[in-house]
Prior knowledge:
- The protein is α/β, with parallel strands linked by helices.
- It has helices at 21-41, 49-52, 63-74, 90-102, and strands at residues 4-9, 44-47, 79-82, 106-108.
- It has a 4-stranded parallel sheet.
- Helix 3 runs parallel beside helix 4 (90-102).
Amino acid sequence: MTIKKLYIAGPYSARPDSPDSYHEIQANIMRASAAAAEAIRAGWSPFTPHKNTAGFEALGVPNERFIEMDLVWLEHADAILMIGEWERSKGALREISRARELGIPVLEIDAYGRIPDAGIMR
């Protein structure tokens, strides 16, 4: 059995008008972490860019570089999961656009907070 790879996409950065950008970023990272844990329970092997580059902005790594790196990983995914308010995220919009170009299925969390089972990809 091959474990299917799920790329998790959603906002990382805080909204431009955020009164507390640090905590908003932390909340976005935690949302992605929760989605990754749920993905594992649903039989996926998740890749969570939020966790891969958490805190790099404080080390001077530009956001554009994050996206470039993430898009390399996306090419290896069996599906992409859109989380949170992904429609407001420039990075997530680039990720979903690239996934569609590559023919990678786009998934979303259902109304009950569930992630589709990895078995749908067989």
